[in-house]
Amino acid sequence: MSIRPTRIVLLGALVALVVTATTSVFVDSTQSTATAAAPSAPAGSAVATAPISGVEKVYVSAVAATPQTSDDVNAAVTQAQAQSVIDQLNSYWSAQSNGAVTVQLGGFETRSLGETTCDPNAALSAEESGAFGGQFANDAWKGTHEHLLVLSTESCNADSFATVGGTGGEIFSGNGIGTAMGVPYLLHEFGHNLGFEHASASICTNTTSYDGTADSFGYSSTTCPTREYDDYFDIMGYTVKNATPNLSSPQRIMAGWMNNYATVTSSTTQTLTALGGSGGTQALKVVEPVSGDIYYVEYRTNSGLDATSAEFHYGLQCDPAMSGYTICELDSNASQGDVRVLRVIPFASAGANGTTVMATALTAGSTDATKRHTHLDAGNSFVSVDGSFTLRVLSTNPSSGASVSVTLANSSTGTSDSSSTPTASPTPTATPTPTATPAPTATPTPTATPAPIVRIPSSVTLRVGRGSVRHGSRDSVRITVRVAGVPRPTGTVIVYLNGGGVRAYPLTARKRGVISASLPRLTAVGYNIVSVVYVGPGNAYSWSAAGITVR
Ligand SMILES: [Zn+2]
Q1: Alpha helix stretches (DSSP H) within 131-220
Q2: Which of 170, 436, 498, 545 has a C-alpha 20 to 30 A away from that of 240?
Q3: How remote is the CA of residue 188 from the centroid of ligand 1, in Å?
Q4: In the chain, what are the helix, strand and coil shares in percent, each to the nearest 5?
Q5: Kind of pairing between the strands at 476-483 and 458-464
């Protein structure tokens, strides 16, 4: 049965927040007006997917959506540049897939759409029917391993999006082909075409285990609230300038791309080599004996592609709270690396899976369990929600690997097996199992869970004043906040320019959701990104961004 991939507008990226004045930021953005796919509700076991492999042919259509050039932010792409972009896609995805996926340039053309303004969805629709003689019309790409890649000279709201799965696909990007941002977006969007949903982060409100049952994870969950895109160690998370981190182990394992992992069904000690390296055991797939839930454990170090991750380049950054709990990231120790625990989030309607990294440890020097980051350091442990799986990080060493112990309750002493997969490298079964550790009887405590706080849906949009200004002059933005059921929303609106905080504006009821903000003098020639974040009562949170060209 073929699964019809829904046209889902997936944002390639979004704004990383500057939380402290000292954190300089980087990022870029797209606009959050589109609706992304919702995870299956209730969440549960992964959607069954077929192994992913093939020669993927990408047909690049270089498009001018409007006749005028005043709205152009990207140079028209030449065939040689298109070839270079495809080479970069091939290099990345071929490596991630262990050679199972090859990306080739299938064709190149330039087109003008004659629109008055660039609406990205309209532009892609027009391309879908008209590009390459109609080859992609009516989803004819399905099952063909052929992809339509539309690159616009206009920013088109700085949108990038793609279809998910379907053995082929369509991608639109208004973010160009620059190596700093354009290519990272395209790597992410091509990941959607291959069938991957977003890489997120979750923080469970159970402070005994920092875990929840499989159906507790989701973007609107109050038990294990999940923030979409929030995994900086995954190409399917936020798109960050100059960052092309690896695809995390759960997706690589489910895609059939990785053999050197161990399936753990009984207590064991293992050495995990860096996911970004090669050889050794690069991930554990832990089958929790009581619930049957699957957890993935991996070790990420400051080498290879992962050295580009924002995790190794920025200080601690904490998101707005969800259900009273706060996910923190970006403080990864470059000399030690991170051990991470991940789970899969199914998207049944898209026939695809996303992943989530779990907020498993206190932040440095803190005892506040409501504010946690998404990695484990040497000495840290993680206990599953019913207490029958304990992970201990014994030591970390980027050269020799991270030593971790897995204790599974109700399982006999034994070693891991990797029967499901022929291991390319010797299975690390040699390590004696430290079964001395009593099974953690961390009782499934009916914890005094704080009263769930409902996250109120909100949106923030911005309109830039002129959008194209001369070097050294100013521009303004008009910001509109809407909150479901609240005619006069209140809260705070923070304005960023090219990732750096400009100013926070109190949003009082008098303002009726509208704030006009002036920007500092614009001195960076080229494409500047203005992003705004709204944070309000009831965990309302949203963001948006737009571009200004400085001549
Ligand atoms: Zn995306």
Answers
A1: 182-194
A2: 170
A3: 6
A4: 15, 35, 55
A5: antiparallel
Q: What is the pLDDT of residues 425-484, one digit of tens each?
A: 433 333 333 334 333 333 333 333 333 334 455 667 677 888 888 888 888 888 888 776
Helices vs. strands in the chain: H and E counts, helices first:
4, 29
**pTM score:** 0.72
In a 3-state reduction of DSSP, which class is residue 116? coil
Distance, in Å, from the CA atom of 209 to the CA atom of 212, rounded to the nearest integer, reads: 8
Give residues with Cβ within 8 angstroms of 103, minimum separation 6.
Answer: 56, 58, 86, 89, 90, 93, 94, 190
**Dist. CA 50–CA 481, nearest whole Å:** 42
Closest CA to 61 of 136, 180, 152: 152
Report how far residue 88's alpha carbon sits from residue 252's, in angstroms, rounded to the nearest whole number: 19
More confident residue, 169 or 472: 169
The Cα–Cα gap between 317 and 315 comes to: 6
Three-state secondary-structure class, residue 318: strand
The separation between CA 336 and the C-alpha centre of its own chain, rounded to angstroms, equals: 23
Residues 6+ apart with CB under 8 A from 439: 387, 388, 390, 407, 408, 409, 410
Q: Across the strands, what pairs with 26?
A: none
How many angstroms separate the alpha carbon of residue 524 from the centre of ligand 1? 27
Distance 405 CA to ligand 1 centre (A): 34
CA of 503 to the centre of ligand 1 (A): 28
State the distance from the centre of ligand 1 to the C-alpha of 12, rounded, in angstroms: 4
